[in-house]
Protein: Polyphosphate:AMP phosphotransferase
Amino acid sequence: MFEALETGKFLSDKEFERRGAPLRQQLLKTQFELAARDLPVIVVVAGVDGAGKGRLVHRLNVWMDPRGIETNALWMHSDEEESRPYFWRFWRKLPPRGEIGVFLGSWYTRALRTALDKQPDSEWRAHYLKQVNDFERMLIDDGYRIVKLWLHVGRETQRQQLTEEAPQKQQNPRVGADDKLWWKAYPKVLQVAQDIILQTDTGGAPWHLLEAEDRNYREVAAGEALLQAMRDHLQRPGVDRRSSGTVDPTPVPADARQPRVLDTVDCTASLSKDKYRKKLNKYQARLQDLSWRAHRERRSFIAVFEGWDAAGKGSAIRRVTGAIDPRLYHLVQYAAPTDEERAHHYLWRFWRNIERDGRATLFDRSWYGRVLVERVEELASPGEWQRAYNEINLFEEQLVEHGVVLAKFWIHITPEEQLRRFHEREQTPHKQYKITPEDWRNRDKWHDYERAVEDMVAHTSTRHAPWTLVAGNDKRHARIQILKTLCKALDAAL
Amino acid sequence: MFEALETGKFLSDKEFERRGAPLRQQLLKTQFELAARDLPVIVVVAGVDGAGKGRLVHRLNVWMDPRGIETNALWMHSDEEESRPYFWRFWRKLPPRGEIGVFLGSWYTRALRTALDKQPDSEWRAHYLKQVNDFERMLIDDGYRIVKLWLHVGRETQRQQLTEEAPQKQQNPRVGADDKLWWKAYPKVLQVAQDIILQTDTGGAPWHLLEAEDRNYREVAAGEALLQAMRDHLQRPGVDRRSSGTVDPTPVPADARQPRVLDTVDCTASLSKDKYRKKLNKYQARLQDLSWRAHRERRSFIAVFEGWDAAGKGSAIRRVTGAIDPRLYHLVQYAAPTDEERAHHYLWRFWRNIERDGRATLFDRSWYGRVLVERVEELASPGEWQRAYNEINLFEEQLVEHGVVLAKFWIHITPEEQLRRFHEREQTPHKQYKITPEDWRNRDKWHDYERAVEDMVAHTSTRHAPWTLVAGNDKRHARIQILKTLCKALDAAL
Structure:
């Protein structure tokens, strides 16, 4: 999850100006439109300490009209609050219709704090997060829009932030008294954070996961997420449209090329033919053993293959199927849905192909189509693909709970390598069928896909079902990486 | 909860004919309209054994076009199903858009079965019911309407049903093998059932709780609930309205006077002046002690007073406040909401008045207005008051979890007694201000209010926060019943 939020995104001051100015204007305009229509918005600013949450809240107050914003910094609790049911403190701070309530320190703080407990009570947390979901659902049903921003920084940045700010804090010893605790517990905090995000990343109130190392970047990214959500809110069905005209369609300036999680993949990785032979034999033999063992123990496994066009999915899958007895696996390939499939929930066509215990299912493209091609090609609405992260996590949770071993591969190649392969396909008679005009069209949207892959990894790479980003420029390396990962996953589970 | 479902409702065969015929016609018509617009519906038929679930499903197939209905009786599980994640069996049975899927034996069966376990694992059940809610939410977001019918019969009826059907069952020993188990566990089954209903009675997929002793009644009541839900589905925002015209507005014939939960209140109960004096002194003294003790132990208590106009709420409350030190309680009276209150969620104006630990809050009218006056006067939409049951239960759960002692009173009087009191008010100068034209108008809707009270008790009388139905024709009796109940609740909690 968080690996996609430590890629080094930043904006120069000049770029910040270029994008901040129109953003500010449009935020303000949208704020007034929401006010005119009596539509309330709640902004939750959450994340690890030292991620600049306070500064972001300040920025939002600068960018918008503070008369319509109420900022609630709930970091110390009065005895008035302590002596009433916990949510009382939030109920009394809810913004009225037409206004914006910003919560710095929210109903998520209490859940995150459990990371500091000696023995975090995960049953209690599950119960509490259910109350959080119920609370948000109630507000959404009542016409509120809840925008949840999660700001993430790496451990080192957190340390720096907390140290740099230390002098100010000495003026008030109560502020930051916990800093050291938080920093020490950082790995556990991330685990709890992932748990919280997964359990509360609902269709009605999805999380926006933001990389927060760079102040310029995080503020623009947060502002843009907020603007988009506020605009969606104006469009929601059932909202009174009589007043004040239509939604401003002006797009905000495009996101400049930013470092992406895919940039962390080492595309120079390669393997000599010789070494490849040896490793291929070794891992195929191991996979064969393991798949029989899984069969005997009635455990099933599922491998998901996604990746760029021409990344080598097909040939990698063949190396996997080559190692497994045909009686033990089922390979399913997904293109456009059939009529019958279209008449059901989009997950239906994947559920129907789950093999029984003791067998493997290999997915050549998968349910991730919803947040990749369907998102980029606008075959799914923003609401549909945004809530799909949660739907997918719930689906995979059920698989894993049942005992399925799940591995997910994104085979990554560079655009240059893709171009080389496209040309090669065009020039090789028996490969020409593999290259279509659609491949070239998809290539034009490389940037959009990169962004979609990044969000996908951020939202769905979980402890239970992590993504493996495969370095695919060298096909031999890619195949071995996949076989090895599969063997390791099976080995750990059996 | 279930006390409101054991009142003896029934329909004669003639009445069944009179109401069944138009109902059938309209169900069929609505089914075709849903099909024309590709809108899918899921009907869950749940409840205790022996409640006639199978017969109801048969009836629905007779009333509607079985070509558009798929009935899934999931009572035996194949090894195909057992060897996949649990929800796989439901996913593969989901109806495509435009069709109706009836589930006899559904995702609720597994949760209810835990009542037969020696040590029911409530943590597991909470986790499982979260998956149930997530599953339903996913389908609702995708355009499904889920109609959940809970059929209830009392223990004696269950025994008869299971005995009468025994001869048929001998032909197949696997059917009914569990009957005895279920019947023996009946009280525990009801506890688990309440737990299930509370946790899954969501705004998107609310439960319809039906009294099922009488076959005619339960089938008409279920048919009417289904018809209403299907019509609502045609109206939902965002649904394509191009095809097939508007929703049929023909109302189904009115519900004939049926026994109600309020009929179970013994309105002849009374108390002599002498006994009243003694008991009043006794319980007021006890309440005074208990309220101080609660204060010392930092426990708060909340009493909710609802009831018919002229039922004697005011004078009963005065007997309560007369017993408590004014420093220890706050009495809040609710009429129409203020502008500021209207600009928030309807629960906001109650949350704001919750007193702190160690103090009492007395609510003269309360959050139940949502499902009483606002429902009957159509100040809240059906969606709003239907989801309010769940919102109220969640709210009260938080109060009780925090340690609040909660008591809820509905003061019941007969319509004749109300009439007598209205006339008395008109004729007594110092009481004239108490009677307004609105009281007379409300009186005309007695029947609607009765129904609303019944649904309210069915949905919100829980183990943690039960309703007390107060016999109010004799004011002395009512006051003592209230004081006694309050003392008992405090005594048990402190």
